[in-house]
Amino acid sequence: MYVYSEYDQKIIEERVAQYRGQTERFLAGELSEDEFLVLRLQNGLYVQRHAPMLRIAIPHGMFNSQQMRKFAELSRTYDKGYAHFTTRQNLQLNWPKLEQVPNILEELASVQMHAIQTSGNCIRNTTSDQYAGVAKDEIVDPRPYCEIIRQWSTFHPEFALLGRKFKIAVSGSKQDRAAVQVHDVGLYLTHNAAGELGFKVYVGGGLGRTPVVAPLINEYVAERDILSYLEAVLRVYNRNGRRDNKYKARIKILVRAMTPEVFAAKVEKEWAELKDGPMTLPQQEIDRVKACFQPPAYEQLEEHNEAFLGKYETDNAFKIWVNQNVVTHKVPGYSIVNISLKNTSRAPGDVSAEDMDIIADLADQYSFSELRSTHAQNLVLADVKQSQLYELWQTLKSHQFATPNIGLLTDMICCPGGDFCALANAKSIPIAEQIQRRFDNLDYLHDLGEIELNISGCMNACGHHHVGNIGVLGVDKKGSEFYQISIGGSSKEDATIGKILGPSFDEDEVADVVEKIINVYVEQRTEGERFIDTTRRIGIDPFKERVYAKNN
Amino acid sequence: MRKIIKDKKIIDDSWVVLTEAQDPLPSGKLIVSVALWQSHKEQLLSHSDEIGVLLEPENEPAEIADDLAQFSLIAINFPKFADGRGYSSARELRTRHHYNKEIRAVGDVLRDQIYLMARCGFNAFAVREDRCINDALNAFNDFSVNYQADAVEQRPLYQTR
Questions:
Q1: CATH classification of A413-551, choosing from 3.40.1090.10, 3.30.413.10, 3.40.50.300, 3.10.490.10?
Q2: Which of B56, B59, B63, B85 is the best residue to mutate to test the A interface, defined by the most A CB atoms within 10 Å of its own CB?
Q3: How confident is the model at residue A421 (pLDDT cuts 50, 70, 90)?
């Protein structure tokens, strides 16, 4: 993974000092609430329902065991002993004290971590594929480009106070695991006809109140030109994006208002001045960053390990876990292991300090000390020897990290919701738990196959409900919490916004409604047909009829 | 007299903002809006002292690009701290239009914007009068390294390291 240069380290240390000064001036009354709000948000500090929340950046979702132990230590010292992994691969502390945040940042800086631009109207953490560098379907490893974009976007002098937040995602594989098309800028690594590497550029996707799948703005931008192109996109947005209404301020609204063609032409004009200038990436720099993402010291192993196969054939529970939570690695004899953070004993994405230490040990023992966080709020050990899978599984199981549900109905994406978040209209964690409990029969879950269920506690859509195969949105009706259900969404390469079934449901009805939807699917599916494909084939009417039947 | 920061030093500000047309013009160095400049160009060109123009966030530098030689100062207004459009305006004036005289940040200007503003090409700062201008001078030392190219340093870090 990327290792800081002296410059990277200096910049984050100077940032700690700058933020410490800002905090001190706020506490001394030299900065108003409103002024400090803008400054603290640039550093990931929200003030939530009960306490501040600090969001720590995990650039492109990669971190190591030392950093994980630091998270554990911070959550013990400054928080209540747990933390939360988000859909943008970051980590949130829910109860830090505002005046202690500079100390937390100083501790983070000691392990090459920070909270820079994890909130606020600026360029946020660049996210990527949790299987980057190890996926079998990968065309090019996206991580070096994410890191190059991280550096370009960190304290960019011109784009620190945009009209609204700005999120970039990069994918380098055939399958999109980074929800690229629902980002402000989504990049797919690709080759042109001459075989040269570059990016397909999508601009203006996003969720929130106005969910939009991003239009393709440029078919091919060469790798050396990506920063000057992004600079042109951001300049057009910064100058022309709306500032009068925060709900109309995202770039998706601008692209839609201008039309993608006119937007692209404006970017092209801006780019003409920047292209081939000093922003052009030298091959030397690309190579320097790529060198930080060299594969670890893999051993030469057989494609199939005998001991592993023996266990796989004889221990059915192990077999189910391997089938669901383990992914084929591009290197023979190695596997990618998902650590499921989804079971009834925890809020989706939550990890206790004890668990963080355990996971850090597992990373040291089984996966070159490295970890990844995923868009679906799970963790990944990316380089595990097949011969060690059985042993690892047993340990994971004993800590409730081996629920074999990755990609299944109970592997829900879920925001913290009304239990924590000041923006939320409704709670989301109890809804997740309700569904977890209803669908606790593993055989049945496996029979249902791939279903993505996403829950958001409000329109801001942190739980990505619009792009869930089943989406649940918490709404407020006359002071009570209700839930609107949509189906048919997808965040993958076939990105689609789900369709709303109809009027919202009472809190205690949600699991019943999900069950009815699932029943329609089971009755209607053809052999091997996934839930999303059935909804696309038969449309929403059969589902609608079933869930509202009792009202007729 | 009001103090401002210019070229990293605290100086007395001798400019006057002219908010509406007057005949004859008051004496001294005058700052006018883009609209006033466009409607009274001839009168202003005959003024005996220097002329500056004030850009609001929605004003594009292109609107005054042909007249840049007439201005000894371009002030860019920040009605709100969090409105970042003026950063792009300054950068465009410096790097596209090669304007090399004073670019001044006015309005809701605090210590906390100055470091990045300077990188975008501002060299003068009318720090909000209720804030300590001496403290604001410290902002220039917030960072010693930057990743990106900017209006001052034309090469990004990866071209210079």
A1: 3.30.413.10
A2: B85
A3: confident
CA distance A54 to chain B (A): 21
DSSP tag of A122: S
* Confidence (pLDDT) at A551: 53
Q: Which of B145, B148, B150 faces A7 most closely, judged by CB atoms?
A: B145
Q: Do B91 and A157 touch (CB under 8 A)?
A: yes
Q: Which residues of A touch B150 (CB under 8 A)?
A: 157-158
Q: Does A282 touch chain B (CB under 8 A)?
A: yes
Chain B partners within 8 Å of A166 (Cβ)? none
Determine, for residues B116 and A160 on separate chains, whether the beta-carbon distance falls below 8 Å: yes
The answer, yes or no, to whether residue A479 has pLDDT greater than 50, is yes
- Options 3.90.480.20, 2.60.40.10, 3.30.230.10, 3.40.50.1100; CATH of A306-398: 3.90.480.20
β-pairing, A334-339 with A185-191? unpaired
Domain residue ranges of chain A, discontinuous segments joined by + = 6-109, 134-290, 306-398, 413-551
Neighbouring residues of A359: CB distance < 8 A, sequence distance ≥ 6: A68, A339, A351, A371, A379, A401
Tell me the pLDDT band of A552, cut-offs 50, 70 and 90. Answer: very low
Give the pair of three-digit tokens for residue B115: 């470091």
Rounded to an integer, the average pLDDT of A193-218 is: 96
Sheet holding A52-56, edge to edge: A45-47, A52-56, A91-93, A82-85, A350-352
Name the least confident of A152-156, A376-380, B109-113, B157-161: B157-161
Q: Do B83 and A161 touch (CB under 8 A)?
A: yes
Bridge partners, residue B18, by sequence: none
CA distance A444 to A402: 17
Tell me how crowded residue A355 is: count the other CB atoms within 10 A of its CB.
21
Alpha-carbon gap: B137 to the closest alpha carbon of chain A (Å): 14
Which amino acid, residue A317?
A
**d(C-alpha A497, C-alpha A540), whole Å:** 13
Interface membership of A425 toward B (CB under 8 Å) = no
| Interchain proximity A14–B120, CB inside 8 Å | no
Residue B110, chain A, CB below 8 Å: the answer is yes
User: Is it true that domain B3-160 has CATH number 3.40.1360.10?
Assistant: no
A232 to chain B: which residues are within 8 Å by CB? none
Q: Do domains A306-398 and A413-551 have the same CATH topology?
A: no
Q: What is the largest CA-CA distance in chain A?
A: 68
Q: What are phi and psi of B3, to 5 degrees?
A: -100, 145
The number of C-beta contacts closer than 8 angstroms across A and B is 102
A257-295 residue pLDDT tens:
999 999 999 999 999 999 999 999 999 999 999 999 999
> A interface mutation test: which of B138, B147, B157 has the most A CBs within 10 A?
B147
